[in-house]
Amino acid sequence: MRPSPWLAPPIVCVLAAASVGVMRAQSSQDHSYTTQDVQTGSRLYAAQCAQCHGPNGDTVSGINLRRGQFRRPLSDEDLRRTITIGVPGAGMPPFTFQPAELEGLVAFIRADFDVGGTAGRVGDAARGRELFENKGACATCHRVNGKGPRVAPDLSDIGAIRSPAQFYRSLTDPVKQMMPINRPVRIVTRDGRTIRGRRLNEDTYTVQLIDEQERLVSLDKTDIRELELAKTSPMPPATNTLSNNEVADLVGYLVSLRGQL
Question: Which domains occur in the chain, in start order?
Fold first, then answer.
């Protein structure tokens, strides 16, 4: 009988407990993991996980670790628990890792397998929803599952499109991460009207946008005198109003948004 690919060799590497313990305490208070966490996870993944999940994390059906896609949304705590107790029905055994090793493995996955990337923490989706709708004020602009305004991009299925690392970057540095199509636009028409809003589409001859009153507007480019794209995002960094743990919870909620089934 061919041995199960899940039966990986035991970990033989032990990290220095004192220095790592201090780092871990500092890291747990932040909304992102450290570069050392990610690098530790990269080595551990190659030794213990790649045999079954593959070098890009996409060889197990329904799971793409590199893109943060699982059969159901997982917080960081869920992910640690899954690694620790395994998934018996799917053939994944439990693993016994040192706390620093487990932290590193989660960090590597959250960094989209990029050892030089930023790995944001993923917290509790229920708390994140409360923040989205209230303290974070996200629902004043964004729409989710048919509820909310249309002045900002609809986020109903954003969790199926973007990874936790992308959410983290967008929340902490929205100007740098803003997609060109989402940049606010100011248009002055040849008859003197000024229209502000968000582009939905643009081709060679026309521009379609939704204005500040949530009206759909389509214009021929021959009727436009000025078209100006904003260089800054109207969305402030989430860290202006939310704590580090709250940012992680908000990421957890965004990860859970995969459209209505």
Answer: 17-110 (1.10.760.10), 125-178+235-256 (1.10.760.10), 180-229 (2.30.30.100)
